[in-house]
Amino acid sequence: MTLRGIADNLNSLDRQDRIEALISIADRFQAVPTEVASRPFDEGARVPGCESEAFIWVMDQPDGSLKYYFAVENPQGISAKALASILDEALPEMSLSEIASLSDDIVFEIFGNELSMGKTMGLTGMINMVRSAANRRAAK
Hints:
By secondary structure, the chain is mainly alpha-helical. 49% of the residues lie in helices and 10% in strands. The protein is globular and about 40 Å long. It starts with a helix and ends with a helix.
């Protein structure tokens, strides 16, 4: 499903149903494979401002696209795991230019407007890292 489709589906739910859906999505989270990264993780991959200790790695693919890998070290980092799962599903369907133009507003479309400042910083930090990697790749 597209990122827009996922956001629209979640945005159509009431608060409680959205929370349950996001928990279910977080349960699908798959951590970075050890062949990509292993503990202790490189601090350069850490998402700035993320309370859940999220990390993102980006690998160039033969077709010119990017593959993103995620780790969330805080076992209670449900929101970060949910966003990582959503991005893992949606990003392969997006062009580099679409990823490079992602707005931070997608976080609020997915999670609603009730996010704490800390969660907002971490989740938008994840979007920023994904967007920055796409911009760097597009500039090559």
